[in-house]
Amino acid sequence: MELLIYALASLALRAYAEPVSPAEVKLYFEENLSQGSEAYLPEDSGYAEKIIPRWNSLGPPKYVVAVKPATAVDVLQVIEYASNQSIPFLGTGGGHGYTITTSGVANAVDIDLGLFTSVTVDALKNTLTIGGAVTFGEILDPLYEAGKEIRS
Ligand SMILES: *[C@@H]1O[C@H](CO)[C@@H](O)[C@H](O)[C@H]1NC(C)=O
Ligand SMILES: *[C@@H]1O[C@H](CO)[C@@H](O)[C@H](O)[C@H]1NC(C)=O
Asked: Which residues form the signal peptide (predicted)?
């Protein structure tokens, strides 16, 4: 009897701790993020075309799922879900970020911010608000048109 209880308890524990598969993570994103969001496994046909590649291939992070959230609320939900499931994640903007620690990121979710491309200049408040995937070259024209400039 004791053995049976022990066996059942360890089974239950194992079931509880079972990590979700990349396919399940992708499905969660497809079903639960807002319309316009996209999710890919690295072997999916759209992956190479739709997901921002990493410019520096030295010690790259290893992703099992890439997600392109459509709204800021989607980004929050991705982070909350990944945290709940103990899945590491990293955001990708332009793809040029440099650090020597990315090789420590494995079995992770790539939060591709490629749908966040807005550039807004408020000339009166002297502020520039940009989406997570905006690169430096994309802010120069809007700034110039607003009569502003920025140091490089
Ligand atoms: C979508 O979210 C709901 C609520 O959290 C959850 O019950 C459902 O399983 C999710 N869909 C998938 C495919 O995981
Ligand atoms: C994360 O876990 C909390 C606590 O169990 C739950 O309330 C919340 O709905 C979960 N969020 C997601 C996005 O899975």
From this structure: 1-17
For the chain, which domains are there? 20-114 (3.30.43.10), 117-152 (no CATH)
Return the ligand 1 atom nearest residue 30 CA. 13
pLDDT (tens digit, 9 = 90+) per residue, 91-139? 999 888 777 888 899 999 999 999 999 999 999 999 999 999 999 999 9
pTM for this predicted structure: 0.84
25 alpha carbon, closest ligand: 1
Is the CB of residue 70 less than 8 Å from the CB of residue 104?
A: no
Contact 149 CB / ligand 1 (< 6 Å): no
- Structure-token pair, residue 60: 């790259």
Distance of alpha carbon 92 from alpha carbon 20, whole angstroms: 23
Buried-state track 58-77, b at ≥16 Cβ within 10 A, e below 16: eeebebbbbbbbeeeebbeb
Please give the Cα distance from 97 to 116 (Å, whole number).
17
